[in-house]
Amino acid sequence: MKPSRRLNAALGAAFLVDRCLAAATSGVFNVLSINVAGLPAFLNNNDVPGDKATNAATLGSKFAQYDLDVVHVQEDFNYHAYIYSTDTHPYRTATSGGVPIGSGLNTLSNFPWADFRRIKWDKCSDASQFDCLTPKGFTFMRVAISNSTTTAGSSSSSSSSSISSSSNNSTAVYVDFYNLHADAGTEEQDLVARQDNINQVAAHIAQWSAGNAVVVYGDTNSRYSRAGDTGIRALLAASGNAGGPGMTDAWVELEHGGVVPAAESACGNPAESDTCEVVDKVFYRSSPLVALRATTFRYDGARFLQPDGKNVLSDHNPVFVEFSWAAGAALRQSDFSGGAAYGTWFSDVPTLAAISKPKPQLLRFRGGSRLDGVALTLTDGTQLSHGGTGGTEVSLELGPAEYWVEAELCRGEKDGKTRNFYIRAATSAGRTLAAGTRTTDCTSSAAEDGWQIVGFVGQDGDEIDLLAFVYAPR
Predict the structure, then answer these.
(1) What pLDDT, on a 0 to 100 scale, did the predictor assign at position 22?
(2) Domains (ranges, CATH) in the chain?
(3) What is the pTM of this model?
(4) CA 341/CA 177 separation, integer angstroms
(5) What integer is the mean pLDDT of 234-246?
(6) DSSP state string for 145-211
(7) Closest of 290, 283, 341 to residue 160, by C-alpha
(8) What is the DSSP letter of 361?
(9) Nearest to 314 by CA among 36, 29, 40, 3
(10) pLDDT (tens digit, 9 = 90+) per residue, 457-466?
(11) What does the alpha-carbon distance between residue 87 and residue 78 come to, in Å, rounded to a whole number?
């Protein structure tokens, strides 16, 4: 059964959760992508009737009315405030500015996220339009589809998002969301720039989203029927694309039986059917931690019409996709503790997924004033290590029938940034290992019955900035 959206609208970072609460292990969520035509009217009227400010305010009210879980908007420039004035999503990105300062990319969400970053394109082209006028690019966020915060319910809303500091961070499900607006136009320079744009997103997925489920959507300015738009094909999972990010296009999957169409079939506004093609697309992939499956696809123009009932509120058709999800059967993760957006993401999931029944044999932590590093050695000799070399190292060797079953992390601030200061591991034999300096802001993560802690996900540098634990069955 699909949980209430209001139940999923998450608490702020200070909410404390009773230890008996656990995150859901399956469910559904939906996404919407729409280019909101927010360029100033004197630059581009988008051939859409109606006042732009009025259209923007109506869009915001409809985002709230239809209770959409994660909305990605593009070209959200000079009428941004009108959208947010009527929308009620509890988590929303702050605007990066109007033309020519901002990227026009924003997200409105019922779920919190652990990290959010804006990345500018390496290449742009003004051959057809003024794509270099603004710092277009893509955004990255790691969204908590389910954790102790989203499970607990909501008592407040926020214009931003932060990592939960609940007392129990035992289980969580995260999906990496990317919002993009690629270079427009069909001149050769435009095609080259757009190809580079999509390749840049793919490279970011390879580095930052290793081991994670991913949903990429936005205005790709690309069509499969256009020979020069090879970038979107490179995102897809295919036998000849083993080095790509392994994505599925929800439109291709659900409306074309998984076969990429070659013939041109452009949509009107609103779209005449769901089988015609627009440049706004939704890609996704699963991971060992969570399985995703697109169950519904539609062009949602009928719900976003102007008062005349004829025209969509933007010159782009809104794209709606609903997903079902299920937590991994062989690997799962805890929630995060620490601070985000200044470390480098790491994940032991790809390594662990290739090992049958991983089990730690040796735990090693480094700490002093703060938590400097975490490491473990599996029984097959695989070593997993993250963080720096500072502090003092402590270690604990586990017996053949002894498992790491619980962990405690404490965080604090250093130089204005939140970091992990302390870790304590507890085994099934009642032994413990600790490093760093304990604070008053602590969380615990406990493996479910029959499971154990076998690795890590997080952000590091010289220290452990952000940390979650990976679970596997014993």
Answers:
(1) 56
(2) 5-327 (3.60.10.10), 332-473 (2.100.10.30)
(3) 0.91
(4) 15
(5) 88
(6) EESHHHHH--S---SS------SB---BEEEEEEEEE-----SHHHHHHHHHHHHHHHHHHHHHSTT
(7) 341
(8) E
(9) 36
(10) 999 999 999 9
(11) 16
